[in-house]
Amino acid sequence: MEKLDRIQINPKICLGQPVVRGTRITVSVILKLLANGRSIEDVIELYPELEAVDIQEAMKYAAWVVSDQLLETQVL
Q1: Residue 54 is assigned to a structural domain of this protein
Q2: 23: Cα separation from own chain's centroid
Q3: Taking the model in full, what pTM does it have?
């Protein structure tokens, strides 16, 4: 995986949830906004401390996390 410089995980910040570095804005907040139809520009308007690259890295982080999840399936 490529290095994500803007995503930080620290147990002392937001209970260890991944956040955009230097903020308390969690990756999950960003993803929920995008999933509910907000654009990157909308998210930046809501959180002016963010840049488009922060949001892109949040999405890359989420894609990396879910790609690492394995489910056992039963073959019928």
Answers
A1: yes
A2: 13
A3: 0.84
75 in a domain, yes or no?
no
> Which pLDDT tens digit goes with each residue over 21-72?
999 999 999 999 999 999 999 999 999 999 999 999 999 999 999 887 666 6
- Measured distance CA(76)–CA(5) in Å, rounded: 44
Q: What is the 3-state secondary structure (H, E, C) of the chain?
A: CCCCCCEECCCCCHHHCCEECCCCCEHHHHHHHHHCCCCHHHHHHHCCCCCHHHHHHHHHHHHHHHHCCCCCCCCC
Please give the tally of structural domains in the chain.
Answer: 1
Instruction: Return the CATH number at 25.
Output: 1.10.10.10
Instruction: Name the residue range of residue 47's domain.
Output: 7-60
